[in-house]
Write a structure and sequence with these properties.
This protein has five helices and four strands, in the order αβαββαααβ. By secondary structure, the protein is an alpha/beta fold. It has a single domain, classed as Diaminopimelate Epimerase, Chain A, domain 1 (Roll). Strand 1, helix 2 and strand 2 form a beta-alpha-beta unit.
Length: 150
């Protein structure tokens, strides 16, 4: 099974992350998703993030501007994966490495919720810069809720 029913984050953390996603997406046509699971099924978290991105059909946004934040809690692994247009417009690997540091710093001191909110906010700023919200045109293309894996 790809998804599980039991949440890996408590309800207050989930609410804060979803609120950050909604606040960020209110300023952009871009889409942010968060995927959390216990263990990474691959040696490399980026490989897993790519698989999750595909499973969640995130490459189907109109402007190819979706971003996934992936975390394997027990393995202490994470990855950020942006679709081709947002990756290109932010300047490539250097931006994504800096954005990942925001998450990494909080995860290293076990502040998972704060790390997710900070990372969502950072990525939301980039999306708003490169894909500003257009009143009457933009729509929420992907659900805002956190997705939980095995």
């Amino acid at each position: 099974m790809f998804f599980q029913k039991k949440a890996l984050l408590d309800s207050s953390v989930q609410a804060a992350v979803v609120a950050a996603i909604r606040a960020s997406e209110a300023k952009t046509s871009g889409e942010l998703r968060v995927f959390v699971e216990s263990h990474c099924q691959f040696m490399d978290a980026m490989d897993r993030a790519k698989q999750v991105f595909a499973k969640l059909q995130m490459a189907h946004t109109d402007e190819r501007n979706a971003v996934l934040i992936y975390i394997a809690l027990k393995d202490k692994q994470y990855a950020l994966f942006g679709d081709e247009e947002i990756y290109r417009r932010t300047g490539g690997a250097a931006y994504w490495e800096r954005a990942a540091k925001v998450l990494e710093e909080k995860l290293s001191i076990n502040e998972i919720g704060e790390g997710l909110v900070a990372c969502v906010t950072e990525l939301g700023s980039a999306l708003a810069t490169h894909f500003p919200y257009q009143v009457g045109i933009d729509k929420n293309e992907l659900p805002d809720e956190i997705v939980f894996g095995k």
